[in-house]
Amino acid sequence: MTTTRTSPLAGERAAGVDAELLEVRDLSVEFTGADGRPVRAVRDVSFTLRRGETLAIVGESGSGKSTTAFAAARMLPGTGRVTGGSVLLDGEDLVAADERHLRTVRGARIGMIFQDPMTSLNPVLTAGRHLDEVLRAHGYGDRAARRARAAELLGLVGIPDPERRLDDHPHRFSGGQRQRILIAMALAGEPDVLIADEPTTALDATVQDQILNLLTDLNRRTGTALVLISHNMGVVARTCARVLVMYGGSVVEDGPTDRVLTRPRHPYTAGLLAAVPRLSAPSGTRLTGIPGSPPDPARPTEGCAFAERCAFAEDGCRTARPRLVTLDDGVRAACPPAAARTEPLSGPAAPERIDRPTPGGTVLAAENIRKVYRGRGLTGRTKGFTALDGVSLTLAAGETLGIVGESGSGKSTLARVLAHAHPSDGGTLRLRGQDITRPSRTELREVRRAVQMVFQDPYASLNPRMTVGQVVAEPLISLGLGDRRAREQRVAELLRQVGLDPSAAGRHPRAFSGGQRQRIGIARALAPEPTVLICDEPVSALDVSLQAGIVNLLGDLQRDLGLALVFIAHDLAVVRQVSHRIAVMHNGRIVETGSADEVCENPRDPYTRALLAAAPEPVPVAPGVVV
Amino acid sequence: MTTTTPTAGAVPGTAPAARKAPARRHPYLAALRTPRGLTGLALVALIVLGGLFAPLLSGHDPTAQSGLGLAAPGTAGHPLGTDDLGRDLLGRVLYGIRTDLGVIALAVPLGALLGCLFALLAAAHPVADTAVQRVFDLILAFPGLILALAVTAVLGPGRLPVILVIALAEIPVFGRQLRGGILVQREREYVVAARVGGTSSSRALVRHILPNAADPLVVQLALSLTVAVFLEGAMSFLGVGVRPPEPTLGSVLNQSMPYLADAPQFAAGPLLAVTVLVLGLSLVADALNREIRR
């Protein structure tokens, strides 16, 4: 390390590139659950990382991908503990090392960056002070030298005018720039490996693109090995040379990215790839999902964790835990049937058309809607924030209108104004031609019956103290629909309609997984038989394998009930597939509207073009894979 | 309609058994069953039962003078001895607990109730909110004892002023706690969902907001009881509380002060009672707090 400490940033590393840097052997990690029982988050994970390599760990929530990386750096949060295996950094076991020794490893040899750049910087310290602290901890030079080095680091991560920006506080930087500062801090100790835990998940697509380019560029220029943890196949495809796919706490597949993504050997990898919505898929095609729910880490299975959801499962899969086996061309997969299989797993099935009704007459129309969030103070003296600025749109019966935009573009505010959850500050709203901008009490009742909403967060949108039956029945009670018996029957019917068992009515939301909770939210919205359903990011909080289930359910409901849908999302690919028309929002305005395929193929507005360019495509298109 | 279920795996019947929520004990009960909660509950029960059964535990009228003067503990019939006027000390401490508990058991819930009403008023309208907040500020601007002296200066010493002072001091404590809770809960998605579902704002308040904002109030109740024990004791100690000869822990302590060097047992009784009560309540509050934060 002493030789690299003063070397220029782009300098060559002394050690050979092919040497093994980090070797994880049979690592197991346990947490203590809320009920005091152990939860096995990671089970017998083994992998190696070579110097200068880029490795992605992909998986859905609960797969153990973050836990594996944190355990490798011995930074497990809460009750987490390593229960077995070893982590060798240049042959030295970190699992056995004491805390004092670990401190010399972290930062200097292993750097880390985290998901949320907004809360990871101390708001009272300048960017320069943040970097200075890290450099001082690593004993780097005197004050002036540290300042020069800090500026150099800021420049390295692509912050313009670094000398001057050193004295700025975090609030003067954008989200993407803050993530750059955090990357600069992680690189300050010139680590051998940089662990990035979902570094772009909290960022908008256009910014995500820049950060990924920066990470690959840094890897090339400084030779720092990169471990990228992500749930996003697109991010992985463009950033890393090798990929490790995790499911239920175990590695299911490991190999070079281009081979794993073009010819997946494990059925889960294949399913995950097929589930990623493609921007190239035309409007009106169904999404592909993986049936079933992810495994519960508190109840580990005997055999393969994926067997329950796997179309290729054999009897042996359910009784014996599969080991990673090296197949040809350097891919390892934990799937005994895969070794025997010679045919590639089928790619995504040919796109299935959604059987959509033809849109009818206009049901909901908004003209010139304005919404201003007033500033603080009794009279609102401080400056307000204009969330919606002259938004006009129409929605036809049986039509799906997709609304896309980045965070802060006003799409959620628009949803709430359309559903009358917030009053608008200007403009007109019409429901079937009738002005409902300022509804009377009886008119509002009609609006509530006709316009309902599905929310983003399936955890926050259900009152934890009510049973599912009470949640779903609430709109019926509030709107005075039916007597007790009729309501009970209606709740059972609604639960069946969204794919849940009617017995769910007696249980509390906490007994259900995210995807199931979202179904409960949809059942609640359907209760008063609305004609318009406003879905505010209904799948953003869900894993990609479950996303298809919810999106397809909404499509089926539209077909069966003739619903008009407003589908809000930040993921253009999903929106294109489900929508008839798309409206693109930017800074509280609609910048472009048009038919879904038209907007995605021939965007007119420069902002739409930027959005399209930034959306990562998951798979390097190759023969043999139907995209 | 069956065609609308492409992913049948979402049927909860197939969910792992662990997801089937076992009949969970109410978090408050669970809290009281932790070692911390049990210890606290036992200490509080010890004092409360002592006060409740004072007539059975002490055969003496707490105001009757035996003519013994300041007697040492162990004197026949007086396990803790007697005070400077020859009154049975055990009796005075036990009856003192009785008086204290009577006062705080009335005053703290009264303050909590008024505070919550103010909070509801504040939640109704921004202008009411500002007005209520300034009232809270006004009450909080006075330290408890100054408030006590001011109220007694108007009403004179006695049981009622003590109750009023404690209640008054607790109003902003509970009011702010609940107001904060309401403001947080009101922005939760399930409250917005209820409104879009047609729920009236009063029903949303009762069904969604208040139940989810109530937990901190229960913890606060246990904490406020400890504060009330101190405030009542301090008022009696200063002579502006419940009037003699009725015993209170504070007044017994006040009486013992001149004899601290010669007869420390005189002060020990009331001190011990207050300490055990406050310790017990604090442990209960802590246990509740830990449980609801999980």
Order of helices and strands of chain B: HHHHHHHHHHHH
Q: Classify the fold: give the CATH topology of chain B.
A: MetI-like fold
What is the terminal separation of chain B in angstroms?
A: 40 Å
What CATH first level of chain B would be assigned?
Mainly Alpha
Overall 3D form of chain B: elongated
Distance between the amino and carboxyl termini of chain A: 46 Å
Report the uncertain regions of chain B: 1-22
CATH-wise, what's the superfamily of the largest domain in chain A? P-loop containing nucleotide triphosphate hydrolases
Q: CATH topology of the largest domain in chain A, which one?
A: Rossmann fold
Count of helical segments of chain A?
A: 21
Q: What is the chains' assembly state?
A: heterodimer
Give me the Rg of chain A, rounded: 26 Å
Strand content of chain B: under 5%
The mean pLDDT of chain A is: 84
Number of domains of chain B: 1
Largest sheet of chain A: 8 strands, mixed
Mean residue pLDDT of chain B = 82
Protein name (chain B): ABC transporter permease
Main location (chain B): membrane
Biased composition (Low complexity) (chain B): 1-20
Membrane topology (chain B): Multi-pass membrane protein
